[in-house]
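[job 0412] stage=complex_fold ligand=uridine-diphosphate-N-acetylglucosamine status=START
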Amino acid sequence: MESILIRGGRRLSGRLVVQGAKNSILPILAASLLNCQGVHLQRVPDLDDVRNMLAILSSLGAEVNFSGDEVVLDTAGVKEYHVPDYLMREMRSGIFLLGPLLSRLGKVRVCYPGGCAIGPRPINLHLGGLQALGARVEESNGFITLSGRLKGTRTGLDYPSVGATENLMLAAVMAEGETVIYNAAREPEIVDLQNFLNKGGARVSGAGSSTVVIRGVKELHRTSYRVFPDRIVSGTYLMAAAITGGELTLEDIIPGHLTAVTNLLRESGAAMEIGADQISIRGGEIAAIRLACTSPYPGFPTDLQAPLTALMTVANGRSLIVEKVFKKRFRHIPELQKMGARISQKNSHVAIVGVPHLTGAGVEATDLRAGAALVLAGLAARGETVIKGIRYIDRGYDDLPRVLVLLGADIERVKKPAVSQPGSGSRKV
Ligand code: UD1
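[job 0412] stage=complex_fold status=DONE, emitting structure tokens
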């Protein structure tokens, strides 16, 4: 099994064009099921989750071609409504197939989806919304079966769930009449989905606000679309530059998507320059941040909570981070402690007292963003860090080690832990 080996202490420097957004491409690939005339996607990141979604589409009868960062899809032949269990269990995003398959075939069956271990991830909002659109929902023996003809409706989410907003949009695109989703999530990836759908002839408006309106259409036409750059990956690389005291420019991105992140990085002492489509950071002495709370967009993203925690482990002073979206997303903390971080956590509050330096250790990624946090810690630590669980990192970062090597890091994939003495050096807790 592969691990990542990092010899810490090198400053990152350079320029980077960031990969396409994982959280955009997954619902967009599911949305392609609604378009029988062909879809051409650009800036597609090569991620395990993307390959998994493509495998699902192929198993349902779609023709799939993934080459470079482009995907060409022909879903005209899709007739199968049961998503293979082994693929569904691989990732949470299989849930996006409910809306489009139901809309397309009048029926869909899936087992409960898998995904990263970041605490309970219920799907009640997805199912409740689809029911409001007219779906019959049966749950038995670990399977969910939805059937029926969908009809536009006015419905509200109890919480602005990103995935539920997207699923309802997908279900409503070809439903009869008008659908209004109140208390919708406002994440940029929802705007990306709207833009993709509308380019193919859908009539969706309001994405990015808390009310999304979808007027049903009979069919979609051939579409070519370029996915948004990934704001979470962008934030990760900015923090990687900050934690190593390096300099980095991200090109061809949408800086407005990262306002909460760049503001916090500024507060932590980094010099930030924000252009029309690029962000530059120059790291220096890292200051503790008084308080950061994760929240739905435009707040600070939960997906960057673990990387921010890693950054604060070497800040001057005491930081407080409050996780308000996934209240059990803290499995990176014991791993960071193995590297000498001084962190205490109670309920959703995380207090971090910065230490002068971290020490390389053998650690394990337990979910995607926890993995990113450990990579940041390893880049800053003295000595060697070996991170197990690289498969989680590959779910969301398109070859992270290669990108970091290009920026000057000493990092590689290794077959077995090659570190002489993982965890050598004193523990600082
Ligand atoms: C999406 C992102 C994920 C990000 C998260 C929050 C994708 C593929 N993934 O996940 O990277 O961390 O948004 O920004 O886009 N909830 C319910 N019932 C539901 C659905 C959600 O109670 O039916 C709760 C969740 O447990 C969580 C909160 O709502 O506490 C937010 O979840 P949601 O916005 O749905 O996240 P995802 O769409 O799963």
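The CA atoms of residues 37 and 250 lie 35 Å apart.
[job 0412] exit 0
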